[in-house]
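Appendix B. Raw example, untouched.
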Amino acid sequence: MNNKNDDDVLPSSKKGLKKVVVYAVLVTLVFTSAMMVVFQVFEYRHDYRDLSAYMRERDDLNAEWGRLLIEQQTFGATAQIGSRAVTQLRMFSPPATQTVVISLPMTSKQDK
């Protein structure tokens, strides 16, 4: 009869050990899952910060591109205005002999 009690104790200790191992594995998996979630949130925030920086840079470059287009149109319009003045209005630059330079007398600030 004593032999029968030993058989009952042995399987119950194996069951207890099996439960402890299963719980340990489950706790390890839950902890690993939690760490992966933390890592993914960190990566998301890092990537979002990079994306925001790239979006600001894109907006700055678009603004600069617009300014450069306006500058290019301005320089193109200057040449067009000069050519139209010559062709349509028959304007010309006078020769140096017909040019008169007028200089104003210098007044000091104390005279005012």
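End of appendix B.
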